[in-house]
Amino acid sequence: xxxxxxxxxxxxxxxxxxxxxxxxxxxxxxxxxxxxxxxxxxxxxxxxxxxxxxxxxxxxxxxxxxxxxxxxxxxxxxxxxxxxxxxxxxxxxxxxxxxxxxxxxxxxxxxxxxxxxxxxxxxxxxxxxxxxxxxxxxxxxxxxxxxxxxxxxxxxxxxxxxxxxxxxxxxxxxxxxxxxxxxxxxxxxxxxxxxxxxxxxxxxxxxxxxxxxxxxxxxxxxxxxxxxxxxxxxxxxxxxxxxxxxxxxxxxxxxxxxxxxxxxxxxxxxxxxxxxxxxxxxxxxxxxxxxxxxxxxxxxxxxxxxxxxxxxxxxxxxxxxxxxxxxxxxxxxxxxxxxxxxxxxxxxxxxxxxxxxxxx
Length: 360
Fold this sequence. Notes:
Shape: globular
Radius of gyration: 21 Å
Largest sheet: 9 strands, antiparallel
Number of helices: 12
Oligomer: single chain
């Protein structure tokens, strides 16, 4: 399969769309945790209990249309190969926990992959909506629409005082986790990010890496999300996060302007050195690739690099992960083979920009 066909097949359609403030905010996500009334939570359920939940979801929701979202396809974890589950994790469609720890889990997935509903993760149901750019409010609207659609068929575990009941106490209440994925290279380069993170934490928010809890902020990409769900409305949670994200956008733009004014030639040199590495390397590790991709994306946003798609960061941060590299290679790869394949894929992707104006 050609790289161009592989990309069009592998990348979620929403990743190629431009959203508000997409030069800094890569994506917005809303996740709602729900459990079915009078059923043991997945963390303590028997195999039979878990199978019954999947069967219930399959019977009532699989392949059924929901407004503009269309049909949802059911994927059962025990029917997927490890590499297929890894790819779903790399695309942020399921959690590592569902992929690694659950043989009795499943996922309902929309065709455009904006909507993913995990089954039997920590909770019976985890509704997830992913939108390009800064669109938390729109993502919440769609998530609530799906939530209402599901609740027409099943009764949720709900307490009048505590709200929605969940396996993890931190999700009790609204069950809402809102998050944005942000590219903040200038705040990192100016060493402001180290001061900003503790301040964000004091506001009841948390800063994580690209794959959430326990992951590293590769390529200057940070995930900002709420920590508290109890005692706040969905609107309050989203508005609090919106306010912080707006401030981060403003500070990142200010830091970029300062770098251009005070260190323009050094910044331009850094961008083009990274572009040269990506264009010519024959072996490249994931961490170096992520950093170089971050530099190149910054160079595109600042106008240093012309005729290269902004989506290249979104694409290659996904396509150069181990799962995708092995799917593209058509088989298992050892770590050193992945580094070779990663360098080859990046070179070919950049070449597409020059020959076909691909994605431009």
